[in-house]
């Protein structure tokens, strides 16, 4: 594709934003554009991977909607020092677009202003392009508001390997993962490894995703084969997904690899826990193990076998590294792959032993490469300046017949926080002198009033993802009032550092256009929170207090004392050295995986703090907390 064509696509993105009247409409526009880019990527991937990576980052990873919204709130101070007139014009356009694209999004207002907006937005778009053209003529501003180039994106592996897993959902086979790896033996040069994944295809991903969804929806029942079949999209046949073969249990793994169709036939079924074990094994065999194999072999490339000149092979039978030598790894999973808990991939045994990703790496997630790079450039707050806004809603709606069930453990969650975090570091709602344990003052108005002062945001409540109107997704507060994305993206949060979103579905992607998804963790990232804890699936109310205690015990100990990264964590934090957390009756495997994920998260906090880096843990997400 020529340079002119790429420029035309960039223009199309802004034209779409100038015409379509709602964010949901714009999501659909960008989804249709991305589909036509996949065949081109497949053609260029072997010869020009750098072009493919730039393209994926721009159209699939970054999310054009988020990119454009970010441009509308970027400060113009640096530009004002060079050309005040241009800075004023740009700022005026930013404010005007924000008013028309974000603030005016209610059905009633939109219905009254469509004609005006279609006309004025196109004119504003023309002026926007003119202003950007003038700005880019200034020395040092040549890349102003442009996407990062490959030479910039490759810096993403500064603190450990980053795995980019693109989603080609309109073709049968997903063949390649990109691994950004920093080679210390070659003057800290970053290389990109292309790892074939021949057994990974879209239909398998769909089967795994819908199996996970079925388990989540039937946590107190049984996920039968029929449940899974009922959730298969119309475009995927039952035979394609092989959903008639139920998921296996740990005593009866029997995988039939059908090389011709690259399908996985999974046989035998007894329980939800067994089904989850089978899914974790498939994720390990198909995705995680080939990727980790490549990283380990590349890492040992300097250890040549004597006289053979070949890299020494690394075997999974080898003993895992000690805790303090586990590396960091970031997963950038796009499209349908973003629904899969790859960090938990592995083979788990009844005796508690395992071979899994977290035995070798501490996992984090990032929605795109740029987000991780930008998060690392944000300064780490000083311990004395940290302000924590912790809010809970134990009873979102006491009205009889309300669909919002009480969440009694959210009160315990705040009590854990109150015991750990010093009073001088806490923010209170509505002028109170203590945390609002009952939720009486936890209203949208009160939370938004205090939010700009917060460096850490902790919300313990119901969360809901609205797949039909994503900007209405939000947190359910007092009387069922919703703190939604539409309100949050208007806020300015200059002190933002970390967000713990202790609610269901805070990191769930849009079912139709996951690459353009407007979820709650992505919103927190947009607001400037560089470290985010979110959930991909429904979380158990009982898990909240343990999670809060683990995170804040480790965080405030690390911030105040800078301990060794392998030092024993405080008691009750689900540390691996203490064994997994006490299982809940609902599903022992769920608690085991929760303990592993929490252990990785808090250990990661300590390790990063110990090395006195200027960032915390990037834009990681704790995914699938109840998986």
From TrEMBL:
One Pfam family here: CHAT
Sequence segments annotated as region (Disordered): 562-588
Domain CHAT: 281-558
Domain of life per record: Eukaryota
Protein name: CHAT domain-containing protein
Native source species: Meripilus lineatus
């Amino acid at each position: 594709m020529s340079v002119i064509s790429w420029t035309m696509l960039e223009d199309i993105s802004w034209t779409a934003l100038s015409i379509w009247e709602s964010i949901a409409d714009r999501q659909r526009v960008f989804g249709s554009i991305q589909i036509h880019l996949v065949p081109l990527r497949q053609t260029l991937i072997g010869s020009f991977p750098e072009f493919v990576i730039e393209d994926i980052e721009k159209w699939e990873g970054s999310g054009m909607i988020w990119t454009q919204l970010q441009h509308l709130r970027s400060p113009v101070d640096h530009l004002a020092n060079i050309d005040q007139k241009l800075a004023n014009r740009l700022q005026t356009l930013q404010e005007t677009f924000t008013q028309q694209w974000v603030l005016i999004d209610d059905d009633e207002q939109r219905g009254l202003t469509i004609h005006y907006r279609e006309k004025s937005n196109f004119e504003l778009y023309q002026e926007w392009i003119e202003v950007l053209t003038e700005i880019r003529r200034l020395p040092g501003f040549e890349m102003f508001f442009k996407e990062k180039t490959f030479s910039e994106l490759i810096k993403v592996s500064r603190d450990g390997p980053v795995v980019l897993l693109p989603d080609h959902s309109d073709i049968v086979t997903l063949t390649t993962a990109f691994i950004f790896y920093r080679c210390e033996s070659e003057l800290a040069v970053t290389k990109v490894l292309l790892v074939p994944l021949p057994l990974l295809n879209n239909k398998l991903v769909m089967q795994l995703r819908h199996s996970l969804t079925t388990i989540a929806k039937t946590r107190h029942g049984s996920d039968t084969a029929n449940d899974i079949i009922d959730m298969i999209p119309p475009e995927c046949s039952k035979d394609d997904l092989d959903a008639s073969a139920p998921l296996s249990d740990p005593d009866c793994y029997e995988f039939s690899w059908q090389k011709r169709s690259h399908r996985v036939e999974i046989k035998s079924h007894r329980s939800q826990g067994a089904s989850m074990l089978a899914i974790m094994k498939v994720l390990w065999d198909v995705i995680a193990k080939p990727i980790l194999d490549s990283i380990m072999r590349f890492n040992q490339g300097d250890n040549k076998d004597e006289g053979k000149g070949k890299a020494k092979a690394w075997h999974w039978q080898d003993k895992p590294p000690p805790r303090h030598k586990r590396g960091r790894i970031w997963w950038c999973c796009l499209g349908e792959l973003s629904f899969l808990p790859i960090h938990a991939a592995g083979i788990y045994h009844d005796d508690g032993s395992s071979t899994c990703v977290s035995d070798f790496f501490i996992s984090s997630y990032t929605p795109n490469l740029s987000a991780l790079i930008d998060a690392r450039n944000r300064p780490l707050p000083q311990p004395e300046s940290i302000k924590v806004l912790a809010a809970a809603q134990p009873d979102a709606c006491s009205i009889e017949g309300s669909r919002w069930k009480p969440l009694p453990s959210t009160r315990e969650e705040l009590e854990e926080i109150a015991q750990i975090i010093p009073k001088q570091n806490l923010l209170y709602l509505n002028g109170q002198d203590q945390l609002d344990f009952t939720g009486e003052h936890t209203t949208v108005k009160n939370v938004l009033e205090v939010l700009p002062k917060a460096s850490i945001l902790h919300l313990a409540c119901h969360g809901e993802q609205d797949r039909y109107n994503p900007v209405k997704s939000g947190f359910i507060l007092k009387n069922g009032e919703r703190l939604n994305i539409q309100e949050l993206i208007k806020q300015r949060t200059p002190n933002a550092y970390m967000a713990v979103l202790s609610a269901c579905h805070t990191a769930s992607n849009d079912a139709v256009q996951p690459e353009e998804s407007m979820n709650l963790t992505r919103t927190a990232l947009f607001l400037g929170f560089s470290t985010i804890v979110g959930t991909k699936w429904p979380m158990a109310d009982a898990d909240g207090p343990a999670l809060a205690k683990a995170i804040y015990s480790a965080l405030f100990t690390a911030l105040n004392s800078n301990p060794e990264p392998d030092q024993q964590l405080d008691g009750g934090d689900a540390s691996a050295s203490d064994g997994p957390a006490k299982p809940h009756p609902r599903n022992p495997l769920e608690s085991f995986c929760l303990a592993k994920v929490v252990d990785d998260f808090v250990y990661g906090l300590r390790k990063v703090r110990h090395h006195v880096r200027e960032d915390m843990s990037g834009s990681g997400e704790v995914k699938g907390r109840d998986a």
